[in-house]
Amino acid sequence: MPVDPQEIVAALRLPPETTVELEPLGERFGAPVRATLHAEGSAAMVVLARRDPDGERAANHLAVMEALTNRGFPFAPKLLGVAGDAAIEEWEDGLTALNVQIDGDGLASAIDALAALHAQELREGLRWGATPGDLYPEEEIPLHRLGFAAHERGPAQEALAKARKRLLEGPFGFVHGDATAANILFTREGPRLVDFSAAGWGHQLFDVAVFLATCGAEAEVRRELAGRYARVRKLDPFATINGIELATLWWGLQEQLALPRKLVETLGDDGAIEALKLASSRVDRALRERVGNAAEAAAVRAALWPS
Question: What span, in angstroms and rounded, lies between the C-alpha atoms of 123 and 138?
Answer without folding.
Answer: 26
